[in-house]
Amino acid sequence: MGFFKLITYTILIGILGYLFCIVFIGANSFLQYKHKVPKDAEYVIVLGAGLKKDKPTRALRYRIETAAKYAKENTSAKIIVSGGKGKDELISEAECMKGELIKLGIGEDRIIKEDLSTNTYENMKYSKKLINNANAKGIVVSNDYHLFRSLKLAKKQGLNVIGLPAKTPRVIIPTAYFRECLSILKAIYYKQI
After folding, report:
1. Cα 117 from Cα 70, distance rounded (Å)
2. What Å distances lie between residue 162 and 51, 95, 137, CA to CA?
3. Domains observed in the chain
């Protein structure tokens, strides 16, 4: 009987932990929409989110569209597209984002590619090297659930940024929230945030 209680408690703790993560990330996602995004940011970092061969996933498509909308309102901001090439991807995420932004009317001269990163920590680390002024005001574009950790990682790199949330495709919410919880714990463990 003791073994079954242990299993039951372990499962219960896992479920409660998952529910806590959903509430925590959900609350942070909601709060991201409350922040006032500066209209005069000098740069926008758009984080990659995977490709299907050479096409953006729906999550990445929402990030690209959000960045393009902001870039049309703030025509002086440089756009840093940040994301390397995954093993199943034909091109880098940065190359894909650049092409999609150009299709949406953003001038190629405004887009800077960062195509070495393989995770959010590296997105910030490598993007920082492309920013001339550490005190410059910037924006990070990612899906709403991902912004809490993204902003913490950016600030740890010394970047002066605020988040601009892109919506999250509903179909990925359960797995995205779970993965994000694990990623937050990992970032805390490795003292990245």
Report:
1. 23
2. 25, 24, 8
3. 2-189 (3.40.50.620)
- The whole-angstrom separation of Cα 10 and Cα 90 is 42
Instruction: Return the DSSP state at 33.
Output: T
Residues 6+ apart with CB under 8 A from 159: 124, 127, 128, 131, 134, 138
Alpha carbon 59 to chain centroid distance?
10
Q: Which pTM value belongs to this model?
A: 0.90
CA–CA dist 95, 50 (Å, integer): 12
- pLDDT tens sequence across 56-69: 999 999 999 999 99
Tokens of 142: 């990612």
Per-residue pLDDT tens over the stretch 57-111: 999 999 999 999 999 999 999 999 999 999 989 999 999 999 999 999 999 999 9
> Is 25 in contact with 144 (CB distance < 8 Å)?
no
CA neighbor of 71 nearest in space, from 32, 35, 97: 97
